[in-house]
Amino acid sequence: MTVQIAQRTLEDLGYAEVLRALAHRCRTEPGRERALARPFLGTDEEVAEALALVAETRRLAQEQFSLPLGGVTDLRGALELASKNGLLEPRQLIAAAQLLFAFVRTREALEERQHVVPRLAAISRRLPLLEPLAVRIDRSFEADGEISDRASPELREARDRVRGLHRRIKGQLEEMLHDEGFLPKLRENYYTIRNGRYVVPVVSNYRGEVPGIVHNASQTGQTLFVEPEGLVGLGNDLAIAQSLVAEEERRILQELTNQLGREAAKALEGIAAVAELDEAEAAAVLAGDLRAYTPEFQGVEDLALVRLRHPRLVLRDTEVVPNDVEMKGEARALVVSGPNAGGKTVTLTAVGLCALMLRAGLPIPAGEGSRMPLYHTVHSTVGDAQDLSQGLSTFSAHVARLRDITLAVAKNSLVLIDEIAADTDPREGAAIAIAVLEELLGKGAVVLVTTHLEELKALAHLDPRFLNARVGFDSKRMAPTYKLQLGAAGASSAIEVAARMGLPAHICERARDLSMNAGGALAKALTAAEEDRRRLQDELDRAKVAAEESERLRKELEEQKVQFERERKARLMRFNEEVAAASEQAAAEVQELLKVLRTQSNEKAASEARTQLLQRMEEANQRAKAARAELFQVEAPAPADLRVGAWVRHSGLNKDVEILELHGDQALVAAGIMKMRVPVSELSGTRAGKPKESKFPERNKQSQQLQRAKAAAPEAVPSTNYRCDVRGMRAEDALGELESFLDRGMRSGEEAAIIIHGHGTGALRQAIRDYLAASPYIRMFRPGENHEGGDGVTVVALRA
């Protein structure tokens, strides 16, 4: 099915701007041409295939992969010329070689990823593999574009002869310039080239004394550029050699052109494939810039665009307010009302542009979960249709456009009408508008219309096929919000808009007085509804502020919790460090006291030492108790709801205790049979009941000891046949052999090994085990069991 969209609709919606944006993202001229001519696709399958192609290219972009299209130029004209036996210039042939190389790079890159991008890979198979021809052309030219000596042996030989003649001529000229008898006849001591011949500048007065051919003269005639007679023969030989070089160069260019011409059809097909790939990549880049998604469209009848944004506004980097546009069930016409410059037309054209983009196989700037039918055609009338050349007023031209649309519309058409029947008497205009809309809906079209007419706003209450929507207006800022609200009609707010646009205040005030008694019942109802909406909006704003404040407090509490945990860990670390330092100090002091006891073995000294030990122990206990109390105070501050009968944690005892009495900042607590008075600041962690304890604590203690013993026990080493026998070796040689043995074992994935070193004096065994203890390869080792060789072997487990 061919899809035809009227040129007027494309202009109304600004579709050309979308195509220009697509072309701007192409990297080749054929790709840009293809993008600007992108067609509307006829079937659901074609659209789905085009969108799948864009999706594949977007996957490549997510992998930071770009098609290797560097070096691709538009050589279609040059290839056509080559196919007709024309002659291409060196720059065209060099560009052709780069094009052929690009074909190969692109095809190889996509075939490597064909499991991810099968459609792109299928297109790339149309790229010809002509690398030998590309290499032949490339090696025939130097980087500056000159034909290389490598192009043919004949060219190298001819150029060698030219270079030799140049050297001979220059050598003879150098001899002349060093001849004392010849120098006075020259204007200056140099030689140059005129008309391809070597000459010297001779003073005109000495013309008769310098035989030769005059090829040029200075403007004053005082200097003649003469080819000396002795160089004429060599000059002729040089001219002949140069002509042979030019002839060979032309032959090479013709040969390369003919070879390229024979492959011109394949190369042209390759350019077409490159253009298709380039356009697909540009469509993916455009979709990324628009943050576009593919809506569900196959078998869809309802319109549901989530967070719709106008494509042209997004491309201009304009801040766009996203809107939801939805028509479900029986609704087939969306009547959009509200203030001028509030976004009604933007909504209208955004939906139209999305319909066209979807038909062209492009993702649309709407969120995930969007649904949009694939409309067969799109009709629009947007803006002023006045045509003075045909004698049509604004209203006449608008009606003519409505006539054309009603005649052309068919089932599943999308019709967009901006300000329907607005430029005439409101009552008659409303009647025309209703009649036109009923005709369009009767033919199966989907309609979006903007209006200020009250009668159209009322249709939604009378006919389920109509649905109201309005664009918002902020009465505080006296400005539109550009937010679309479905299910409600909007007031025009014309006076507010006029005041915002600078109409004098006294005029606006007078207009408000006149409008109080004007308008029908619907207008007054809309005004009252708008007041209710504003009041509800104010309440919603206050609720949002309260919610934001609650969220702020929650975040502050989270931050405090994190800070509290950080401080607790820091205090715990300091506590551990202090305990360790105190233990070291106490051990040192005990050692000193023991030394004193050993040297002074009398009762008085022993009594003094015992007293000092008890004193040091008490000081250490006090420091530990103070540190624990400080740690506990940070770890869990004392609760404010302590009560008699509650179980809490005591920081000094580091045990759970029961509160028996409370007196101000003191509490009587019981820890088993022991009772004591303690500060409430040392209590925390209120619990309603006594913490549960095991009925058999000794049994639990034994079980825990067994578990710790099992965890500490070495893991069993699996049996192995991987062995290293170093018996009889010197320790140094044995360790070298052992290192190589372990290297091989790690590479081959061995889990265990046996080293046979024998008993001997034990020196070799000890050297090997010292080595194993420091080796990074070894997880553990042990002497062998009796059945393994006893202490004459060492069994090792290798790291995985």
Description of the molecule:
By secondary structure, this protein is an alpha+beta fold. Helices cover 51% and strands 15% of the residues. It has five domains: 7-130 and 263-290, MutS, DNA mismatch repair protein, Chain A, domain 3 (Orthogonal Bundle); 150-257, Orthogonal Bundle (MutS, DNA mismatch repair protein, Chain A, domain 3), CATH 1.10.1420; 303-501, Rossmann fold; 636-713, SH3 type barrels (Roll), CATH 2.30.30; 723-798, Ribosomal Protein S8, Chain: A, domain 1 (2-Layer Sandwich), CATH 3.30.1370. The chain is built from 23 helices and 21 strands. The strands form five sheets. Strands 8-9-10-7-11-12 form a six-stranded mixed β-sheet, with helices on both faces. A five-stranded antiparallel β-sheet has the order 16-15-14-13-17, with no helix packed on it. Helix 2 (15-24) packs antiparallel against helix 3, helix 5 crosses helix 10 and helix 6 (90-112) packs antiparallel against helix 8. The radius of gyration is 48 Å and the shape is flat.
Shape: flat
Tally of structural domains? 5
Tell me about the largest β-sheet. Answer: 6 strands, mixed
Rg estimate, integer Å: 48 Å
In percent, how helical is the residue content?
40-55%
Overall CATH architecture of the largest domain: 3-Layer(aba) Sandwich
Output the number of helix runs.
Answer: 23
Which fold name corresponds to the CATH topology of the largest domain? Answer: Rossmann fold
β-sheet strand percentage: 15-25%
- Output the strand order for the largest sheet: 8-9-10-7-11-12
Secondary-structure-derived class = alpha+beta
Mean pLDDT: 83
Oligomer: single chain
In the CATH scheme, the class of the largest domain would be Alpha Beta
Question: CATH-wise, what's the superfamily of the largest domain?
Answer: P-loop containing nucleotide triphosphate hydrolases
Protein name: Endonuclease MutS2
GO biological process, one term: negative regulation of DNA recombination
Biased composition (Basic and acidic residues): 690-701
Domain Smr: 724-799
